Amino acid sequence: MLEKGFDLNDIEPVLDACESSGFINDNRYAELLVRSHISRGHGAIRIRQAIAQKGLSKDCIEAAITNSDCDWFELAKDKATKKYGVPRVTEVKGSKARDLIAKEKAKRVRFLMGQGFSYDQITYALDSDPNDLDDDD
User: Are residues 108 and 90 in the same domain?
Assistant: First the structure.
């Protein structure tokens, strides 16, 4: 608003009124951003970085991520399953050569790290096999 030529004395009361009326709420905005990123399959690390770029405080970001009730391990597994079909690498193009398997697994780890998942979450996701029956349900 300053760039548009408004005076700071005019801006502050309007912003205060908007904030007290609930029109401006950083916590609600952070929660909206977290939900949006989760729906895209992003992990907590990537979400923290993206929201921090919006200028929100670390406390606000952490509260929104904590309140999301997201199972990050399952989200990582779902992302890996969607991308690769079977996340566990047992063979590459019909070959069971160890070096090819190691390269493919490293590629998948890099992809999931780029999506914002921790190494523990990635290990869980890549060790899963969607063909196994879930007895937990």
Answer: yes
